[in-house]
Design a protein that fits this description.
By secondary structure, this protein is of the alpha+beta class. It has helices spanning 8-11, 15-23, 89-101, 112-126; strands at 30-34, 67-71, 81-82, 87-88, 109-111, 134-136, 142-145.
């Protein structure tokens, strides 16, 4: 949210460069959560690119094979805040899900698929359907195990 439209090259990072930097370390697996949007809008009143939103639809081929990515919104949507929580709406429900609320089948494990389903349901409901979190990659990857 704190990118400056006047200093975009200095205050923003390209998704492809971010992924490339991580992939250079040759990790076994990577899970990325992006509470951001690609619409060119900010959570405030400014647009990042002139007065025209940039509509970029991230496609699965854009992520390295060992990556799993959950994004806050679809390519043409704005990632909204949850004012009372002082977080992005996506981040709030992501954290609640990781605390255990996303364990839909009660097996004391949370997979990326379960987490995505929980976050998506809550964000879509809270945003009246104007924000839809997306998952790319391995939905079966176990993120959290509880004992």
């Amino acid at each position: 949210y704190d990118g400056s439209p006047r200093l975009l090259d200095d205050t923003a990072i390209l998704r492809s460069e971010f992924f490339k930097s991580i992939a250079e370390a040759q990790p076994k697996s990577v899970t990325v959560f992006l509470d951001t949007c690609y619409s060119g809008e900010t959570r405030g009143t400014e647009m990042l690119i002139a007065a025209r939103p940039v509509m970029i639809k991230a496609v699965e081929k854009d992520i390295p094979r060992e990556f799993t990515v959950i994004t806050a919104a679809a390519g043409d949507q704005t990632a909204k805040p949850l004012e009372e929580a002082k977080h992005g709406m996506f981040s709030y429900f992501l954290m609640k899900g990781m605390e255990g609320d996303a364990d839909g089948n009660g097996d004391n494990k949370i997979t990326t698929g379960e987490l995505h389903a929980y976050v998506k349901q809550n964000v879509e409901q809270q945003s009246a359907g104007t924000q839809t979190p997306e998952l790319q990659g391995d939905a079966d990857r176990v993120l959290v195990r509880f004992q």
